[in-house]
Amino acid sequence: MSRGHGVLLAAFGSAVWAGVFLAGPVAAQTRYLAFGDSITFGVGDPEGLGYPPRLETLLEERGEAAVVANFGVPGETTAEGLARIDSVLENGGDVLLLMEGTNDVGGRISPETIRFNLQEIARRAATRGLETVHLTIIPRMPTANFDGSNQVTGELAGELRELAWTRGETLADPFEVLLYQTPNVFEELYVGGEDRLHPNPAGYDVLAAIVADVLTGIDAVPPVPGEISPVNDAQGVDPLTEVSVDLFDLGSGIDLNETELRINGQAVPQTLTGDSRRVTLSFQPTDPLGGVVFVDIRSRDLASPANVLDRQVAQFVVQGTDFLDGDIDRDGRVDGADLVAFALRFGSRRGEGDFRAFADFNGDDVVDGIDLALLASNFGLSSG
């Protein structure tokens, strides 16, 4: 059960008790302050409503008396949000719904800095007596000008999971649900076109449902990764480096007996440190690793029915590994995934928004037919 839900139940119980002595029952109402940027504000929704009014409706349908006030500001960074939060808190409330950081990612601000700003926002809310529900930011479309792979956004999600756990606060995880549990998410739930960041009305419906589930004690999210070492896509890693993954479940908890770290598809001897809310899985190789190393996690939570995690959470490259031209994702083979990544950059030149050096195989500052020919010559091949 989430803290916000606990507040609601406690208040509701008091109201029922008071109703024994008063002429009529007293309805308890929780005031939520939805704080964030354009995604909270509702850009991409023709009616400009976003998720807050949808959340309020869902809570009412689930028997919760709630008001969800929208304090989203388009284009805002977490630093700007930190400067604004005190004026918002003056409006009074019970729970802060905090989702911000999309513009920081676009501005190349580090996940650690974003986390610091959000931590300070949550601290200020706590001094006013408000609980905070942290929301991971939604994933970016593959065509986004920056972080279309969602590597940075994923690192930020890990930072926010750690932040919520450290502070003993509630977490809602739109990043996990949208990117990994929602088929055709970018085609069906995003505005698309030139807008590569915002949900459409259907997307805001889903976003509201994700938050409503957390506030009403419904656990629909599996264990999720936090800090990973070596970091995803690390290059030149020592072949005897320790591999570790932090795993979180701030809902029903992790089923530790069904949690397994796998390297290159094989279960490995692992050390588990922590508990069912946060556990670190560690593997120390005794024989040197080589080439591209894939790190997978298999786990499930204690919900009924259980939510299952079974996927690759990172890959890294051991020092001394050579790659073929065309292996854009550095997974040791040239395949369809590389061709798709290359197509997104085709025709771009250095200095243009779509240009990426990793697609310019011959280093002439343009992604063109010569680069395509180099990719095609190695298509279907793997690094030796």
Structure notes:
This protein has helices at residues 3-19, 38-41, 51-61, 78-89, 102-106, 111-127, 151-167, 174-181, 185-188, 201-215, 336-343, 369-378; strands at 30-36, 66-72, 95-99, 131-135, 170-172, 190-192, 195-199, 224-229, 234-237, 243-248, 260-263, 266-267, 271-274, 278-283, 292-300, 308-318. By secondary structure, it is an alpha/beta fold. Helix 3 (51-61) crosses helix 10 (201-215) and helix 4 (78-89) packs parallel to helix 6 (111-127). The chain is 33% helix and 23% strand. A hairpin with a 2-residue loop joins strand 11 and strand 12. Strands 2-1-3-4-5 form a 5-stranded parallel sheet, sandwiched between helices. The protein folds into 3 domains: 3-215, 3-Layer(aba) Sandwich (Rossmann fold), CATH 3.40.50; 224-318, Immunoglobulin-like (Sandwich); 336-378, no CATH class.
Structure described in brief:
By secondary structure, the chain is an alpha/beta fold.
Radius of gyration: 23 Å
- What's the CATH superfamily of the largest domain, by name? SGNH hydrolase
Please identify the top-level CATH class of the largest domain.
Alpha Beta
Low-confidence runs: 1-26
Can you name the CATH architecture of the largest domain? 3-Layer(aba) Sandwich
Q: Termini distance?
A: 51 Å
Structure annotation, total helices? 12
Query: What is the global morphology?
Result: globular
Q: Output the CATH topology of the largest domain.
A: Rossmann fold
Features:
single chain, 384 residues, alpha/beta, Rossmann fold, Immunoglobulin-like, five-stranded parallel sheet, five-stranded mixed sheet, 16 strands, globular, disordered N terminus
